[in-house]
Amino acid sequence: MDTESGAFNVDFARKLIRFHFWENQRVWDLAIAPLTEDQFLREVKFLRGSVQSECQGLINTESVYLQRIIGASPVTGASLEGITDRAVIAARWLSLRQAWSTFADELDGETFFSRCEFESGGRRHTMAAWQLIFHVLYQGTMRRSQILRLVAELNQPAAFDLSLLQHLTGLLRE
Amino acid sequence: MKSDLVKTIFAYQMREDRRLWDEVIMELDESLFYVDTGYSWGSLQRECAHVVDAMHGYMQRLRGSKQIAKAFAIDNPNRVRLRQRWDEVEDQWKTYIARFDDREFGRMVETTYRDSLITVPAWQLVFQVFNHNTLHRAEILQIVAALRDPVDFDMSFARYCIRNAE
Fold first, then answer.
1. pLDDT in tens, B45-83
2. For a Cys staple, B77 with which of A43, A143, B81, B138, CB 3.0–4.6 Å?
3. Total domain count, chain B
4. Does A1 touch chain B (CB under 8 A)?
């Protein structure tokens, strides 16, 4: 147990969730938005994907894992299969960001350590909510790295770097 | 409780780094280790050296240093030397994390970052390293894909947790 009120302080987790969506937005605005439609959709063979498929994969993870944490049933995907319109994808991402933001605002120690049961690959699994949250955070870090690599191949290398500490300290290197 | 969480994530990070070295980097023809692919740090050599440097730098910050020394005294360590240095720095982290407790989680650390003096809780420096290593594991796989072929390498934290619980 942590601290002032006697309750577990999850402020650090809140900060990490906010960082995840802040950095998603930064990648979208500075790296994805400048792409042409063709660049956004084009598959880069040696990287096994396109910017569109990476965005779709991350949005799906954020959607499915949030549902698993809050106990939604049945859990449904983000329904972006075949969607190529960036405005639609951006709107879906924004609504997910808002849902996660509400979740983060209301997050407490009890929810953070609660056990979440879900089905995946035909099997039942039980994980702690914090493990599901960190799965999303690490998927985000990996996917954003992959997106910037794709953007460098399709357009030009991004002129900014990805860093948790720059977000937490506000010391950005543009 | 927070320290248990940090220890679990650290174990995952260390396992993924070791798998990446053992199953991917050391399996490559050594000549490929030095090839500049033209993205980010360019070669696996420079990419790995950067990661070790960062791990080393944040360990120094956690110990209160404001003058951050490089991890290497030489410019172009070969693959064996790099792996050795990685293991040495990782051992320092293992020692630190083994003693990590909830008091350490919130301990305020005064250090430097991007030429500025900052005061941050220790957890922010620890999670910076976790995030940084994750980012660079992805970049290392991208470099390998450019040099050879894409590698199937599952880095899922959820699957790691499920396997460990079985």
1. 999 999 999 999 999 999 998 888 888 877 789 999 999
2. B81
3. 1
4. yes
Host domain of residue B122: 2-30+41-163
**Cβ-defined contact of B138 to A113 (cutoff 8 Å):** no
DSSP state, A32? I
Q: Which residues of A73-87 are buried (b: 16+ CB within 10 A; e: fewer)?
A: eebeebebeeeeebe
| CA pair distance B72, A13, nearest whole angstrom | 34
**Is the ipTM beyond the 0.90 threshold?**
yes
Output the domain CATH number for residue B127. Answer: 1.20.120.450
Q: B77 to chain A nearest CA, in Å?
A: 25
Which residues, other chains included, contact B28 with Cβ-Cβ below 8 Å and sequence gap of 6+? B44, B144, B147, B148
* A145 to B127: CB separation less than 8 angstroms, yes or no: no
For the entire predicted model, the pTM comes to: 0.95
* Alpha-carbon distance B79 to nearest alpha carbon in chain A (angstroms): 24
* B95 inside domain: yes
Residue B106 inside a domain? The answer is yes
Cα–Cα dist B122/B71, whole Å = 21
Whether the Cβ atoms of residue A111 and residue A154 lie closer than 8 Å to each other: no
DSSP B46-78: HHHHHHHHHHHHHHHHHTT-SSPPPS-SSSS--
Residues from chain A that touch B138, judged by Cβ atoms under 8 A, are: 141-142, 145-146, 149
Maximum CA extent, chain A: 54
